[in-house]
Amino acid sequence: LQKLIHLLQSTDDPLIQEQALITLSNSAAFSVNQDIIRNLDGLSIIGRVLSDCIPRVKEKALNALNNLSMNIKNQKEIQVYITQVCKDIESAPLNSDLQLAGLRLLTNMSVTSDYHHMMINSIPRFLHLLSEGNERTQV
């Protein structure tokens, strides 16, 4: 995990970034790895990838954060990206994989009421997605 995080931090190659993020995302399915990734500063390194302009890379970062958000301690760190994720959802093409990845992350982050206030301004856009989106987006 440490080598993957270092690789993600040290490369600008989108293909390598994607593969590292996919592997980190899969690794985050195990709760012990969620703590390890957080302790290696992996959350902020993955979070920095959200500023990438390549939608596939950003989507993979959102998927990784989504899996990592199953941990309360991780949520405390991930919450700093909520506003950006809301903006990304609003600007992403309707029903795109990027939009769905952002929505999945916000779904996990909204299980408790701790971060609802950070999403409230996006509610009108979410309602639009509910009426205009396809079935996957609506779910």
TrEMBL record:
Compartment(s) of residence: Mitochondrion outer membrane
UniProt cross-references to InterPro entries, sorted A to Z: ARM-like, ARM-rpt_dom, ARM-type_fold, Armcx_regulator
A GO-annotated cellular component: mitochondrial outer membrane
UniProt keyword list: Membrane, Mitochondrion, Mitochondrion outer membrane, Transmembrane, Transmembrane helix
Top-level taxon: Eukaryota
UniProt-listed Gene3D superfamilies: Leucine-rich Repeat Variant (1.25.10.10)
Coiled coil: none
Residue ranges constituting the Armadillo repeat-containing domain according to the UniProt record: 1-139
One Pfam family hit: Arm_2
UniProt membrane topology term: Single-pass membrane protein
UniProt protein name: ARM10 protein
Organism for this UniProt entry: Casuarius casuarius
